[in-house]
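Following up on my earlier message about 6-O-phosphono-beta-D-fructofuranose. Here are the inputs again, as you asked, copied directly from the submission form:
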Amino acid sequence: MKIGVLTGGGDCPGLNAVIRAVVRKAQSLDYDVIGIKQGWKGILEKNYEEMDLFSVSGILHRGGTILGSSRTNVFKIDNGVEIVKNNLKEMGVDALVAIGGEDTLGVANKLFKEGVNVVGVPKTIDNDLNATDYTFGFDTAVNIATEAIDRLHTTAESHNRVIVVEVMGRHAGWIAVHSGMAGGADSILIPEQKFKMSEVAADIKARHARGKSFSIIVVAEGAQLEDEAGQDHMILSSKEKDSFGHVQLGGIGNIVAEGIEKLTGYETRATVLGHIQRGGSPTAYDRVLGTRFGVHAVELIRDGKFGRMSALKGNKIVDAELEEAVGTLKTVDLDLYEVAKTFFG
Ligand code: F6P
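Thanks, got it. Here's what our run produced:
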């Protein structure tokens, strides 16, 4: 048995833990592994390397992915599926482990329907993938954002300022809600619930009226501002679309900061955390989750359970159909958001 492993989409802490687990588990079953470079692009270009215990030694704690990543969509390339099938045959790959989020696993699911033996591992800092309670990478991103909020608290207090922290989260506000709750944010704005600037300003004014001289607002990059006429606005940093049709988000933090300063009169600053949330060493939680996912992915291959992915339910590793994982996004549980709201203003 020869397994190909690839990492696709935005990188995230814990990818190397999964790659290591796939190679180690495969080795224990006497399977060979090749590492495919730069996601799906590596299959199209037959860019890969043989992997052994040395290739994965010393990588558990390292951020990023030793295989590289890309946002290549096989289905947007002429004869993409045929090229993938032929190249996998030429490379001698019997089964694939695709480590990725909605886009990468969406491609994996379609390839499975075209007859490719593929299993998935759910990855994204956004935690918006369905059919698993958590994706690896999320815990690290939340911890990084929480630490940033803690640091911003002290400087906001010294200067009597409002500080707006923009975190990642294209379609779902999981990072915003978890880091905002952990960091004691006074307002949290998420893509799942449109917000009006006047309502946020009212919360901040109420807080200052009870004697507080500073505030922290956490906003997810995909949060949608509703203007006073009821029109929604998603703030983009570029209208250009990637091969999965995604525009580049960014800029909502500055817009909220300007609006809040104007409506409250309080000095306000914005900080955009950006890719810092995806970089560096994974937390212990993400290392363990990634390791468990990677081992289970090889077990799925051993058992011939293709078209499925490793998943977490409660604290058990189970598996789910790729179709279920990519069909709909897992957005923020609104009961959780209600709890977060208790502390607004
Ligand atoms: O999908 C993960 C993610 O980090 C999103 O939160 C963010 O919108 C996007 O990737 C950024 O993508 P890129 O690294 O291509 O700018």
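One observation from looking it over: The mean pLDDT is 96. Hope that helps, and feel free to reply on this thread.
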